[in-house]
Structures are given as structure tokens and as C-alpha cells.
């Protein structure tokens, strides 16, 4: 399943669609996620949960770590032996992490 999803993501048409949805940051600006300058992440103060697969070959783990550093009220959970599709590859653990986060932050289910 992971290999199939990775192959689809690598097709030129798929990559072009992703690029159009995530424009490059302004010249001289660094972005954690394309189009989201780090200054904007620094301004977000609401509780944020970041879940990332350690073996993700689409978005490097460093992107999640950098986002976590700039989102001052964030939690980062890294799933070992997991690729890009955390919610599919580790569904039960994903849901458990999300429920714990919502319970701890007063979020609704």
C-alpha cells in the first residue's frame, strides 16, 4: 500500500497538482510547509498536534520537527516504521493519539 501511494505521488501530474496547491514562499523567506512562512507558524498559539511517520519519503521528518519548534503550543508524535500515510498505516495508534490530544486540550470529538 505504501509503495503504491508513493508511486502515485511521484507521477509528474500529481506533483504538479501538489505544487499548484502549495505555492513557493516569497523570495528570501523560508517555509516549513510551502507557502507557510515560519513567522506565521510562530504566531499560532492554539494547541496543535503534529503526527508524522519516521520513514516518510514524501515529507522529511525534519519538516515536522521544524514545524514543532515554531508552533509554540504543539505536540509532535513520530510513528516508527511508518511512512507518509500515518492515518492508514497506523490507524488505531493515530486515533488513540488524536483522542488523547483532544481530551488533554478540551477539544471535541
A few lines on this structure:
The chain is α+β, with helices and mostly antiparallel strands and 109 residues long.
Describe what this molecule looks like in 3D.
This protein is α+β, with helices and mostly antiparallel strands and 109 residues long. It has a single domain, classed as Alpha/Beta hydrolase fold, catalytic domain (Rossmann fold), CATH 3.40.50. Helix content is 50%, strand content 16%. It has helices spanning 2-10, 12-21, 38-43, 61-70, 86-89, 91-105, and strands spanning 31-33, 36-37, 48-53, 74-79. Helix 4 (61-70) links the parallel strand 3 and strand 4. The radius of gyration is 15 Å and the shape is globular. The mean pLDDT is 83.
According to DSSP, the number of beta strands is: 4
What's the overall geometry? Answer: globular
Per DSSP, the total helix count is 6
Radius of gyration: 15 Å
Secondary structure: helix percent? 40-55%
Give the oligomeric state of the chains in this entry, treating copies of one chain as homo and distinct chains as hetero. Answer: single chain
- Find the CATH topology: Rossmann fold
